[in-house]
Design goal:
There is one protein chain. By secondary structure, this protein is α+β, with helices and mostly antiparallel strands. 28% of the residues lie in helices and 26% in strands. The strands form ten sheets. Strands 3-7-1-14-11-12-13 form a seven-stranded mixed beta sheet, with helices on both faces. Bound molecules: cytidine-5'-diphosphate.
Length: 788
């Protein structure tokens, strides 16, 4: 689509270079760890070596003798203020610091406050904790067995380890469809526990000013306003009321959902600052980040798909065990304990479906965050895209043909899915066809047949996913009761320059650029003249923050709505200046002119000046507007990915030879940024498919708790991505955009797995669990007698 604005205005559709990059690439970003305040103290945390143990005693005597150590904070210290437990986003409870027992390895046990970071670390080494180990529950299936140790002994009425049972769809109707099916395929699949590995770990500087009674917290949070409200709710009883709390999210080096929750470290640092009256900095290290912060995924899925012999899918049945660790600290909207997992019918016109999830406590870190994913969509997409290929294999049908046959036809949009969502728009067949043409699908199938005849292992995998992003319509979505909308506040200065503030918070997505482009598109003011600010609760309008690709669908929409309000007022001012009726005015980017007399016109800059110097009498001066945008629906971006892999028979190594990604996120604000989002997302999709996993041994010891064994992809493992797009605008979004930030992370893993299974299908392989490590593949090759 050709941009409507000039390169100078740089509205939508221009690949404007990111305004934030000059400071980032010069090392001039301002991250939490860059913040230095006078008299600032440092905090470090004592962590548990055991996954489940009683705390018999904590002795801080030696630690307090370490030069520079000022205080050791324990659960008992916090209990005096009733701050030793805190609520989670899912209305469960989480220990800030324990008073009785620890529930996972690396759990916070005590905090040391010192004059510098090194002294704090020495203090941590010197704290003596006496533990009494308890039986450890690692396996969520065993956790549900009768007789399993009950983990949450703090909950007096809790008699088992089940957190919740959630279901969607019609079980009886689905069972009936299965009974009538020609073909039924079944597959178990595990989406392992993984972890966000942002460049920047989590941290904060808590600064309580005893004179003003105001608490300022600079922190790595994706949702500063929600955090302020939660802090006020949790600590209101000790005098921290909301107007006395300021949360500042400075630059953030990657969030991906991992910087949504409130971690104990933040709360302890705040408590320490309030008690000591000095600023306290806490920045976790890499291992703490991987081992103790909220995890993602960990879904054990059993999927069944019913179909007619001709390949028409008729019903889907899903049963899932979700391992949530010791508390349910998932970062989901409140009414959705299994997130948006009910998008699991995917891109297919399924008439019957039933899905159920049981959340389970184990001795692992809590979480279940939306790691570059709209609340469990990655798990849903993996499930449906994998089981679709299992069906194709069973029917001996080409997986592309099977998808084409079952796609929701484009005429059926808006489409009401059997599990309750209304998909806004889609054109799946065009998207898959484009991917097939780009990669040369028919030729690849021929090449594969030739290679197979020679004993070479090559596979082609497809994923045609549908996403669900932009939480959300407030009628469905809230976080602890706070409705999910988002905001923009736009102020045009007298000289026609703009300050625009938002309730979201970029963590690298480029909001300073793209929000400016939206304002430029709507008002004709050059994007270069639009200053975008986010992340300071003292100045930004209230919003729910940035995660789950919600910024464009919510705050992006608010930017357009607020700009349009400004344009309405600008029109009145223009009519006053041009001494004509508003009805006689026409708008073209950046100016109003009189119909039929284009030489009689006023630019938005003329109008801005007049708003402060020559406004019509009776009108309020100034030119600004705010929008709190409550979207009428979510947006449903989609894509078709095709992956080609070659497998080395000697080592089991999977090489992604080609990867074509055709994405559709509706109208695009900045094509270069969207491509960048997809590149990053694809790398993060390849990661769990081939490399990343956090597992635990039977004693609950974490495996994969450092970058030595938690393998993030580098440029060596990632192929050269081949991107393309289709554009199917959202009918309800003010400028037809859908979110895109996470599409690729969600869509990529099943394309890779399907390619690997496709390479091995002739050997009788139906499924391979992720991460598809060389060892895992080599074992299969050995078992099938084809290892070299
Ligand atoms: O919420 P988050 O910013 O992570 O996700 P998003 O709304 O999908 O946006 C990611 C980045 O892509 C932002 O800079 C958006 O402005 C940009 N984007 C775009 O240029 N066009 C779209 N249709 C969607 C997003």
């Amino acid at each position: 689509m050709e941009p409507k604005t000039s390169a100078q205005v740089c509205g939508m559709g221009h690949s404007m270079k990111r305004k934030e990059d000059p400071r980032f690439i010069r090392g001039r970003g301002n991250y939490v760890d860059d913040i230095q305040l006078p008299g600032m103290l440092h905090m470090d945390i004592v962590r548990s070596p055991f996954a489940h143990a009683k705390i018999k005693s904590i002795n801080a005597d030696k630690a307090l003798k370490v030069p520079g150590v000022l205080a050791v904070i324990t659960g008992e210290t916090l209990a005096k203020y009733n701050l030793h437990w805190m609520p989670t986003l899912m209305s469960d409870t989480q220990m800030v610091l324990p008073t009785e027992k620890v529930m996972y390895q690396a759990q916070e046990v005590a905090a040391v406050i010192a004059t510098d970071r090194y002294a704090a670390a020495d203090g941590v080494e010197a704290v003596e904790v006496d533990y009494d180990p308890l039986p450890v529950v690692v396996d969520p299936f065993k956790a549900l067995l009768p007789g399993a140790p009950i983990l949450r002994t703090d909950k007096k009425d809790k008699k088992d380890n089940r957190i919740f049972h959630w279901e969607a769809g019609d079980r009886a109707a689905t069972d009936q469809a299965f009974a009538q099916a020609d073909v039924v395929v079944k597959q178990d699949m595990y989406i392992p526990r993984i972890h966000v590995a942002s460049i920047e770990t989590c941290g904060c500087v808590a600064d309580f000013d005893r004179v003003t009674g105001k608490l300022t917290v600079y922190m790595t949070t994706q949702a500063p306003h929600a955090i302020r409200t939660v802090f006020a709710l949790v600590a209101g009883h000790v005098g921290l009321s909301e107007e006395k709390i300021r949360i500042v999210s400075p630059d953030i080096g990657g969030g991906f959902g991992g910087k949504v929750p409130v971690y104990p470290g933040y709360v302890i640092a705040v408590a320490a600052s309030v008690v000591i009256g000095k600023p306290v900095k806490w920045v976790e290290d890499r291992m703490e980040n991987l081992q103790a912060d909220s995890f993602a995924r960990d879904y054990h899925i059993h999927a069944e798909l019913a179909a007619k012999r001709d390949g028409t899918m008729t019903a889907l049945k899903i049963k899932t065990i979700a391992d949530h660790g010791y508390t349910d600290a998932a970062a989901n909207p409140s009414k959705f304990p299994a997130g948006l997992y009910s998008i699991v019918t995917g891109s297919y016109d399924l008439k019957r479906a039933f899905a159920e999830v049981d959340g389970v406590y184990t001795n692992k870190p809590p979480g279940g965050i939306a790691y570059r994913c709209s609340f469990r969509v990655t798990e849903a997409v993996h499930c449906i895209e994998r089981i679709t290929d299992v069906l194709a294999q069973e029917l001996k049908m080409d997986p592309a043909e099977l998808r084409m046959k079952n796609f929701i036809p484009k005429e059926k949009f808006p489409y009401k899915s059997v599990l309750g969502w209304e998909y806004d728009s889609g054109d799946y067949a065009t998207c898959l066809q484009k991917a097939m043409d780009k990669i040369g699908y028919a030729e690849l199938r021929k090449e594969q047949a030739e290679k197979r005849a020679r004993g070479e292992l090559m596979g082609i995998g497809i994923s045609s996913f549908t996403e669900i992003v932009g939480a959300g319509p407030s009628k469905q979505f809230d976080i602890l009761g706070i409705k999910m909308f988002d905001s923009a506040e736009i102020r045009v200065h007298p000289t026609g320059k703009v300050l625009a503030r938002f309730g979201t918070k970029s963590q690298g997505q480029g909001h300073e650029t793209t929000y400016a482009q939206i304002v430029a598109e709507e008002l004709g003011i050059p994007a270069a003249h639009v200053q975008v600010e986010e992340g300071d609760t003292d100045t930004a309008p209230y919003g729910l923050g940035t995660y789950a690709s919600r910024s464009t669908p919510t705050s992006g929409a608010a930017a357009a709505v607020a700009s349009r309000k400004i344009r309405e007022k600008a029109k009145k001012i223009a009519a006053h200046l041009l001494e004509c009726s508003e009805d006689d005015l026409v708008w073209e980017t950046g100016k109003f002119s009189v119909k039929g007399s284009p030489q009689r016109s006023k630019t938005i800059q003329d109008i801005a000046l007049a708003a402060y110097t020559n406004h019509p009498q009776g009108m309020e001066p100034g030119l600004e507007a705010t929008s709190y945008y409550d979207p009428p629906n979510l947006t449903f971006p989609f894509g078709s990915y095709i992956c080609v892999v070659d497998i080395d028979r000697g080592t089991g190594m999977v090489k992604v030879r080609r990867f074509v990604a055709v994405d559709d996120c509706g109208n695009i604000i900045n094509p270069m940024i969207v491509d960048g989002q997809i590149h990053g997302g694809l790398a993060m999709g390849l990661a769990p498919a081939l490399l990343e996993e956090i597992s635990y041994d039977e004693d609950g010891n974490v495996q994969g708790g450092s970058f030595m064994d938690y393998l993030v992809p580098t440029s060596m493992e990632t192929p050269s991505w081949e991107l393309d797009k289709t554009i199917t605008p959202s009918p309800h979004h003010p400028f037809g955009a859908k979110g895109v930030g996470e599409s690729a992370t969600v869509g990529a893993p099943p394309a890779i797995v399907n390619a690997v299974v496709d390479a091995l299908a002739h050997l009788g392989v139906k499924h391979v669990e992720i991460p598809i490590t060389p060892e895992r593949v080599w074992k299969i090759l050995k078992e099938k007698g084809v290892a070299e």
